[in-house]
Amino acid sequence: EADIYQTPRYLVIGTGKKITLECSQTMGHDKMYWYQQDPGMELHLIHYSYGVNSTEKGDLSSESTVSRIRTEHFPLTLESARPSHTSQYLCASSARGGRYEQYFGPGTRLTVT
Amino acid sequence: GQQLNQSPQSMFIQEGEDVSMNCTSSSIFNTWLWYKQDPGEGPVLLIALYKAGELTSNGRLTAQFGITRKDSFLNISASIPSDVGIYFCAGQLAGNQFYFGTGTSLTVIP
Description:
The complex is a heterodimer of chains A (113) and B (110). Chain A has 113 residues and is mainly beta. Helix content of chain A is 0%, strand content 49%. Chain A contains no helices and eleven strands. Chain A has strands spanning 4-7, 10-13, 19-25, 31-37, 44-51, 54-57, 65-66, 76-78, 87-94, 102-104, 108-112. In chain A, strands 2, 4, 5, 6, 9, 10 and 11 form a seven-stranded mixed beta sheet that branches. Chain A has a four-stranded antiparallel beta sheet with strand order 1-3-8-7, with no helix packed on it. Chain B is mainly β and 110 residues long. In chain B, 0% of the residues lie in helices and 55% in strands. Chain B has no helices and eleven strands. The relative contact order of chain B is 0.33. Chain A binds chain B through residues 2, 6, 33, 39-43, 45, 48, 58-59, 88, 90, 92, 94, 99-107, 109, and chain B through 1, 30-31, 33, 35, 39-45, 48, 50, 86, 88, 90, 92, 95, 97-98, 100-103, 105.
Protein backbone atom coordinates (compact mmCIF):
# COMPACT_ATOMS: atom_id res chain seq x y z
CA GLU A 1 0.00 0.00 0.00
CA ALA A 2 1.30 3.45 -0.97
CA ASP A 3 2.14 5.94 1.81
CA ILE A 4 0.91 9.08 0.13
CA TYR A 5 -1.67 11.33 1.70
CA GLN A 6 -3.88 14.15 0.52
CA THR A 7 -5.98 16.61 2.50
CA PRO A 8 -8.69 17.60 2.41
CA ARG A 9 -10.51 14.74 0.68
CA TYR A 10 -13.45 16.97 -0.19
CA LEU A 11 -13.65 20.77 -0.39
CA VAL A 12 -16.51 23.08 -1.34
CA ILE A 13 -15.48 26.70 -1.60
CA GLY A 14 -16.76 29.98 -2.99
CA THR A 15 -15.42 31.79 -6.03
CA GLY A 16 -12.40 34.01 -5.36
CA LYS A 17 -11.13 32.14 -2.32
CA LYS A 18 -7.51 31.08 -2.00
CA ILE A 19 -7.00 27.37 -1.33
CA THR A 20 -4.08 25.01 -0.76
CA LEU A 21 -4.34 21.29 -1.39
CA GLU A 22 -1.89 19.28 0.69
CA CYS A 23 0.09 16.24 -0.43
CA SER A 24 2.64 14.31 1.61
CA GLN A 25 4.49 11.04 1.07
CA THR A 26 6.62 9.02 3.46
CA MET A 27 8.38 6.85 0.89
CA GLY A 28 11.32 9.21 0.37
CA HIS A 29 10.44 9.62 -3.30
CA ASP A 30 12.22 12.38 -5.20
CA LYS A 31 9.58 12.82 -7.89
CA MET A 32 6.10 14.15 -7.18
CA TYR A 33 3.21 15.04 -9.49
CA TRP A 34 -0.18 16.75 -9.54
CA TYR A 35 -2.89 15.59 -11.92
CA GLN A 36 -6.33 16.97 -12.65
CA GLN A 37 -9.10 14.51 -13.50
CA ASP A 38 -12.77 14.97 -14.30
CA PRO A 39 -14.98 12.00 -13.26
CA GLY A 40 -14.30 8.92 -15.36
CA MET A 41 -11.92 10.78 -17.62
CA GLU A 42 -8.20 10.61 -18.27
CA LEU A 43 -5.58 12.17 -16.01
CA HIS A 44 -3.92 15.42 -17.04
CA LEU A 45 -0.54 16.38 -15.60
CA ILE A 46 -0.54 19.96 -14.29
CA HIS A 47 2.69 20.13 -12.22
CA TYR A 48 5.65 17.96 -11.34
CA SER A 49 8.81 18.11 -9.30
CA TYR A 50 12.01 16.07 -9.50
CA GLY A 51 13.31 17.18 -6.13
CA VAL A 52 13.52 19.98 -3.58
CA ASN A 53 13.30 23.45 -5.13
CA SER A 54 12.47 21.94 -8.53
CA THR A 55 9.01 22.46 -10.06
CA GLU A 56 7.76 22.30 -13.64
CA LYS A 57 4.45 22.84 -15.39
CA GLY A 58 2.81 19.85 -16.99
CA ASP A 59 0.98 19.43 -20.27
CA LEU A 60 -2.31 20.91 -19.06
CA SER A 61 -2.28 24.63 -18.49
CA SER A 62 -3.28 25.43 -14.94
CA GLU A 63 -3.71 28.60 -12.89
CA SER A 64 -2.40 26.79 -9.84
CA THR A 65 1.09 26.98 -8.38
CA VAL A 66 3.17 24.46 -6.46
CA SER A 67 6.18 24.48 -4.17
CA ARG A 68 8.69 21.82 -3.07
CA ILE A 69 10.55 22.96 0.02
CA ARG A 70 10.72 19.51 1.59
CA THR A 71 11.09 16.16 -0.14
CA GLU A 72 7.95 14.73 1.42
CA HIS A 73 5.64 17.71 0.85
CA PHE A 74 4.21 19.06 -2.44
CA PRO A 75 1.30 21.48 -1.88
CA LEU A 76 -0.79 22.96 -4.68
CA THR A 77 -2.27 26.46 -4.36
CA LEU A 78 -5.05 28.23 -6.19
CA GLU A 79 -4.87 31.99 -5.52
CA SER A 80 -8.43 32.69 -6.64
CA ALA A 81 -10.73 29.72 -7.12
CA ARG A 82 -13.24 29.71 -10.02
CA PRO A 83 -16.02 27.28 -10.95
CA SER A 84 -13.84 26.05 -13.85
CA HIS A 85 -11.43 24.69 -11.22
CA THR A 86 -14.04 22.18 -10.05
CA SER A 87 -12.42 18.77 -10.52
CA GLN A 88 -10.57 15.96 -8.75
CA TYR A 89 -6.91 16.65 -7.98
CA LEU A 90 -4.59 13.67 -7.61
CA CYS A 91 -1.10 13.73 -6.15
CA ALA A 92 1.44 11.04 -7.01
CA SER A 93 5.09 10.20 -6.35
CA SER A 94 7.79 7.95 -7.74
CA ALA A 95 11.40 7.09 -6.97
CA ARG A 96 14.17 8.71 -9.00
CA GLY A 97 16.03 5.61 -10.06
CA GLY A 98 15.43 1.91 -10.45
CA ARG A 99 11.80 0.89 -10.63
CA TYR A 100 9.59 3.67 -11.94
CA GLU A 101 6.28 2.82 -10.32
CA GLN A 102 4.11 5.86 -9.65
CA TYR A 103 1.87 5.80 -6.59
CA PHE A 104 -1.22 7.93 -6.09
CA GLY A 105 -2.91 9.52 -3.13
CA PRO A 106 -6.67 9.25 -2.61
CA GLY A 107 -7.39 12.60 -4.27
CA THR A 108 -9.09 15.86 -3.34
CA ARG A 109 -12.53 16.47 -4.80
CA LEU A 110 -12.82 20.27 -5.25
CA THR A 111 -16.07 22.07 -5.94
CA VAL A 112 -16.06 25.82 -6.50
CA THR A 113 -19.46 27.49 -6.25
CA GLY B 1 2.01 15.57 -25.10
CA GLN B 2 2.06 11.88 -25.87
CA GLN B 3 -1.18 10.13 -26.75
CA LEU B 4 -2.06 6.67 -25.49
CA ASN B 5 -5.04 5.05 -27.16
CA GLN B 6 -6.80 2.67 -24.81
CA SER B 7 -9.52 0.27 -25.92
CA PRO B 8 -12.20 -0.63 -25.46
CA GLN B 9 -13.61 2.51 -23.87
CA SER B 10 -16.13 0.47 -21.89
CA MET B 11 -17.05 -3.17 -21.32
CA PHE B 12 -20.12 -4.87 -19.92
CA ILE B 13 -19.48 -8.52 -19.10
CA GLN B 14 -21.02 -11.39 -17.16
CA GLU B 15 -19.39 -12.50 -13.94
CA GLY B 16 -16.93 -15.28 -14.66
CA GLU B 17 -15.96 -14.07 -18.13
CA ASP B 18 -12.43 -13.10 -19.09
CA VAL B 19 -11.58 -9.50 -19.99
CA SER B 20 -8.97 -8.07 -22.36
CA MET B 21 -7.98 -4.47 -22.89
CA ASN B 22 -5.03 -2.79 -24.55
CA CYS B 23 -3.11 0.41 -24.91
CA THR B 24 -1.22 1.62 -27.98
CA SER B 25 1.04 4.56 -28.66
CA SER B 26 3.05 6.04 -31.48
CA SER B 27 5.99 6.41 -29.07
CA ILE B 28 8.33 3.82 -27.61
CA PHE B 29 8.03 3.54 -23.83
CA ASN B 30 10.48 2.11 -21.29
CA THR B 31 7.85 1.33 -18.68
CA TRP B 32 4.20 0.38 -18.82
CA LEU B 33 1.94 0.52 -15.78
CA TRP B 34 -1.64 -0.61 -15.28
CA TYR B 35 -3.95 0.98 -12.69
CA LYS B 36 -7.49 0.44 -11.38
CA GLN B 37 -9.52 3.38 -10.11
CA ASP B 38 -12.69 3.22 -8.05
CA PRO B 39 -15.08 6.21 -8.05
CA GLY B 40 -13.82 9.08 -5.90
CA GLU B 41 -10.49 7.38 -5.19
CA GLY B 42 -6.97 7.58 -6.57
CA PRO B 43 -5.67 5.00 -9.05
CA VAL B 44 -4.16 1.89 -7.50
CA LEU B 45 -1.16 0.28 -9.20
CA LEU B 46 -1.90 -3.25 -10.41
CA ILE B 47 1.08 -4.29 -12.53
CA ALA B 48 4.35 -2.71 -13.66
CA LEU B 49 6.26 -3.83 -16.79
CA TYR B 50 9.86 -2.92 -17.63
CA LYS B 51 11.04 -5.00 -20.60
CA ALA B 52 9.71 -5.66 -24.09
CA GLY B 53 7.93 -9.00 -24.16
CA GLU B 54 7.63 -9.16 -20.38
CA LEU B 55 4.57 -11.00 -19.11
CA THR B 56 3.61 -10.40 -15.47
CA SER B 57 0.74 -11.70 -13.36
CA ASN B 58 -0.93 -10.41 -10.22
CA GLY B 59 -3.55 -12.93 -9.13
CA ARG B 60 -6.19 -13.09 -11.86
CA LEU B 61 -4.57 -10.21 -13.74
CA THR B 62 -1.94 -10.66 -16.43
CA ALA B 63 -0.27 -7.87 -18.36
CA GLN B 64 2.24 -7.88 -21.21
CA PHE B 65 4.74 -5.33 -22.48
CA GLY B 66 4.47 -5.41 -26.27
CA ILE B 67 7.46 -6.46 -28.36
CA THR B 68 7.44 -3.16 -30.26
CA ARG B 69 7.40 -1.26 -26.91
CA LYS B 70 4.51 0.77 -28.29
CA ASP B 71 1.72 -1.25 -26.72
CA SER B 72 0.61 -3.19 -23.67
CA PHE B 73 -2.21 -5.56 -22.81
CA LEU B 74 -4.14 -6.37 -19.64
CA ASN B 75 -6.20 -9.51 -19.15
CA ILE B 76 -8.49 -10.32 -16.24
CA SER B 77 -9.56 -13.92 -15.89
CA ALA B 78 -12.81 -15.14 -14.29
CA SER B 79 -14.13 -11.65 -13.52
CA ILE B 80 -15.92 -10.96 -10.23
CA PRO B 81 -18.12 -8.01 -9.17
CA SER B 82 -15.29 -6.25 -7.33
CA ASP B 83 -13.39 -5.94 -10.63
CA VAL B 84 -15.75 -3.09 -11.50
CA GLY B 85 -13.94 0.18 -12.04
CA ILE B 86 -11.91 2.14 -14.54
CA TYR B 87 -8.62 0.69 -15.72
CA PHE B 88 -5.86 3.00 -16.93
CA CYS B 89 -2.62 2.26 -18.68
CA ALA B 90 0.36 4.56 -18.28
CA GLY B 91 3.59 4.69 -20.23
CA GLN B 92 6.83 6.35 -19.27
CA LEU B 93 9.63 7.59 -21.49
CA ALA B 94 13.15 7.29 -20.12
CA GLY B 95 13.18 8.85 -16.66
CA ASN B 96 10.51 11.37 -17.50
CA GLN B 97 6.85 11.96 -16.87
CA PHE B 98 4.12 9.39 -17.21
CA TYR B 99 1.42 9.52 -19.90
CA PHE B 100 -1.99 8.03 -19.24
CA GLY B 101 -4.51 6.28 -21.43
CA THR B 102 -8.13 7.36 -21.69
CA GLY B 103 -9.35 4.51 -19.48
CA THR B 104 -11.52 1.40 -19.87
CA SER B 105 -14.68 1.33 -17.78
CA LEU B 106 -15.51 -2.22 -16.70
CA THR B 107 -18.95 -3.30 -15.52
CA VAL B 108 -19.43 -6.86 -14.26
CA ILE B 109 -22.98 -8.18 -14.25
CA PRO B 110 -23.57 -10.76 -11.49
